[in-house]
Write a structure and sequence with these properties.
The complex is a heterodimer of chains A (231) and B (239).
Chain A lengths: L8 H19 L1 H18 L9 H29 L3 H7 L4 H30 L6 H28 L8 H25 L8 H21 L7
Helix pairs in contact in A: 1-5, 2-3, 2-5, 3-5, 3-6, 3-7, 5-6, 6-7, 6-8, 7-8
Chain B lengths: L17 H19 L14 H28 L2 H32 L9 H21 L4 H33 L15 H44 L1
Helix pairs in contact in B: 1-6, 2-3, 2-5, 2-6, 3-4, 3-6, 4-5
The chains are: A mainly alpha (231), B mainly alpha (239).
């Protein structure tokens, strides 16, 4: 009988993550397009500065955050857009899982999706902008992860809202970007100092705001998510 | 050709909004005082007079945004459509006042700081991002036709927006404090005012609070009528 018991919140969330990743793994459309976009943007941005004025080292952090933001929007839109086909969302709603686990499953799936893009984008950044591969790059990868948690937390909620409106994907950046401001501002400020060789202790004030944002918005969005579903 | 006849009950009659009329008259009276009967500030000259509009914008904007946030909580909690209409009305009025703040701020800044925009001015930057959130809020409302869904979605956005404010404020403050010294000589806080200026300032507080309330009231009535008309339309279609 145990086999028929509905899974708990996290168990159900993990089932949903596996479902989304399986779909993505079989089609690979969203991942490939987001990945190509990220690498393409990295190379294009190289030519937007005068190399004799701003060194590649100085502009790399800025490029990193622009690329992260927009590849995140690509992934986030796909998250609930996927459920619109054949009203897959209805099947999720009638299944014996809590609405919070739908949100957490989608959010964790998005985090994995975005992380996979960064696994390619950050080394590409180091390659194209001749960044030294070492401790700073690893610390910045950690900051990127913290930023992604905040971005995914609000972005997943807004993705669920945007798909139900007339404007759909046009609305997602308009809703999300103002909420990304504190995340990007603090992550970018901390990241550029780490790239410049400053110690981690010096960037703690920015990291504290970043971590506080992650905690507050993961909780707030998990609580708010049930209100975005049809009753 | 068919002629459409209106029954007397639904005959639209022109309504003059006396409260709004009175508020506009008060604003006109206030500006007569501010321009002609308030002394010109010694250091800033005539540019200081823009404060009487700038401050008015700030009062209206923050009053409206507070009402939007509070009414969103009520709308989500009690499912009260009036609260949703009030949130919508005050958000739109808030956007107008925020636009006034964002227009007059740089004009004053250009004259006094020598720069149109100052990213290190935490309040100005916060106002800009608030403006973006309110625009998103109104666009979201416009993109949803279902009344109940519109109320839920916009209330969620308004409440998350309220949570966002301290984070943006802290971030801008940290950005400013680490990058530039805070302004010392030309700091945005006002120097001490003469009693006539203080009276004008207090008058602006009263006048624009009144204008803000009158505008929200007018916009609230419009929202109620619009949903009523939409409901009638649907009913008519079914019948």
């Amino acid at each position: 009988m145990n086999g028929h018991r509905p899974p708990g919140t996290l168990g159900a969330a993990w089932l949903l993550v596996r479902k989304d990743l399986a779909i993505e793994f079989r089609t690979r459309t969203a991942f490939l397009s987001a990945l190509v976009f990220a690498v393409l943007a990295l190379t294009i941005f190289y030519f937007t500065w005068d190399e004799s004025v701003v060194s590649p080292n100085d502009r790399a952090p800025g490029v990193l955050w622009v690329v992260l933001t927009f590849s995140a929007l690509l992934g986030l839109h796909r998250s609930f857009g996927l459920e619109e086909h054949d009203r897959g969302i209805d099947a999720l709603l009638v299944s014996p899982i809590s609405r919070e686990s739908i949100y957490l499953g989608k959010a964790i799936g998005n985090l994995i999706f975005l992380s996979a893009i960064q696994v390619v984008a950050i080394p590409s950044l180091a390659l194209f902008y001749n960044l030294p591969v070492g401790r700073p790059l690893f610390i910045v990868s950690g900051i990127v992860f913290l930023a992604m948690v905040g971005i995914v937390a609000v972005g997943t909620l807004f993705s669920a809202m945007a798909v139900n409106t007339r404007l759909a994907e046009l609305l997602l950046p308009m809703l999300s970007l103002p909420f990304f401001v504190p995340v990007l501002m603090n992550a970018a400020q901390a990241g550029s100092r780490i790239f410049a060789g400053r110690p981690v202790a010096e960037v703690m004030p920015w990291l504290r705001i970043l971590i506080a944002f992650d905690i507050v918005f993961v909780f707030a969005c998990t609580l708010a998510f049930p209100f975005t579903l049809e009753e | 050709m068919t002629s459409v006849s209106h029954s007397p009950a639904v005959e639209p009659k022109p309504v003059f909004d006396w409260v709004l009329g009175l508020a506009v008259a008060a604003v006109v009276g206030f500006y007569v005082r501010a321009i002609y009967f308030t002394p010109i500030e010694l250091q800033q000259g005539a540019a200081q007079k823009i404060y009487y509009l700038h401050l008015a914008g700030v009062i209206g904007a923050y009053l409206s945004i507070t009402i939007t946030a509070l009414m969103s909580i009520v709308a989500l909690w009690l499912h009260d459509q009036r609260a949703d209409h009030l949130a919508e009305a005050s958000a739109e009025v808030g956007l107008v006042f925020l636009t006034v703040v964002l227009t007059t701020g740089p004009i004053w800044g250009h004259k006094i700081w020598g720069a149109w925009w100052a990213w290190w001015e935490a309040r100005l930057t916060l106002t800009l991002f608030l403006w973006f959130v309110i625009v998103a809020y109104l666009v979201l409302r416009g993109a949803i036709e279902d009344v109940a869904m519109r109320a839920r979605y916009s209330a969620v956005l308004a409440m998350l927006g309220a949570l966002l404010i301290p984070f943006i404020h802290l971030s801008v403050y940290l950005f400013a404090a680490r990058l530039h010294p805070m302004p010392v000589v030309l700091k945005p806080s006002r120097p001490s005012l003469s009693s006539e200026m203080l009276t004008t300032l207090l008058l602006s507080l009263a006048t624009f609070t009144f204008l803000c309330v009158a505008l929200i009231r007018a916009r609230y009535r419009l929202a109620v009528q619009r949903d009523l008309a939409a409901a009638l339309d649907v009913d008519g279609g079914v019948a």
